[in-house]
Write a structure and sequence with these properties.
The chain has helices spanning about 5-10, 15-55, 65-85, 100-130, 145-165. It contains five helices and no strands. The protein has one domain (about 15-165). The radius of gyration is 20 Å and the shape is elongated. Keywords: Cell inner membrane, Cell membrane, Membrane, Transmembrane, Transmembrane helix, Transport. This is TRAP transporter small permease protein. Part of the tripartite ATP-independent periplasmic (TRAP) transport system. It is a multi-pass membrane protein.
């Protein structure tokens, strides 16, 4: 077990919360590696396209579409990691003047509101995926719904992190721990 797993005993008081956090750790790590793969594939495709155009004087037909798909997936997979640690746009000019207790309660309320909005986005995304499923990409024999599936996954993952924040569970690292024991 990793140190992140070991910290769950101190973080989550109930078995449900510990299980919830364990599942979130697995989801975060899977997402982390998927982001790495998507960014790597996007970089390789764009590099191959540039090489093909300028050195071989030809073009890879699906390179633009595939690199755009990998970019969209990388971005939407990364959004929940930003939500988890609070790296999102927020205006706190008024809130910082509130007492500490009220700030915490307001943050908890906003986490629940955000989770509800992500749940609504998830539900709407199901309809978008269903309506685009029959549509094919112009240069590839795959469904155009792949772009919308990224939104669906992002909404579900973000909702889980917002619920964890609302429950007062600490954010856990996304990246696997290094051999030295510090998160990357």
């Amino acid at each position: 077990m990793t140190p992140a797993w070991n910290r769950l005993g101190a973080t989550a008081s109930s078995p449900f919360k510990r299980s919830f956090l364990r599942g979130l750790i697995i989801l975060d790590r899977s997402s982390y590696y998927a982001i790495l793969v998507a960014m790597g594939m996007m970089t390789l495709l764009v590099s191959a396209q540039v090489f093909s155009r300028y050195v071989l004087s030809s073009s890879i037909d699906s390179a633009d579409e595939l690199s755009r798909l990998f970019f969209v997936w990388a971005i939407f997979l990364a959004i929940p990691h930003g939500i988890k640690v609070g790296i999102h746009v927020g205006i706190d000019a008024l809130v910082t003047h509130f007492p500490e207790f009220l700030q915490r309660r307001l943050a908890q309320l906003m986490s629940w509101v955000g989770a509800a909005m992500m749940a609504a986005l998830f539900w709407i995304s199901i309809g978008a995926v269903a309506s685009k499923w029959q549509e094919m990409m112009p240069t590839l024999p795959v469904t155009a719904a792949l772009f919308y599936i990224a939104v669906l996954v992002c909404a579900a993952h973000s909702c889980l992190h917002l619920v964890a924040q609302a429950l007062g569970l600490e954010p856990l690292p996304s990246a696997p721990e290094r051999h030295g024991g510090t998160p990357s």
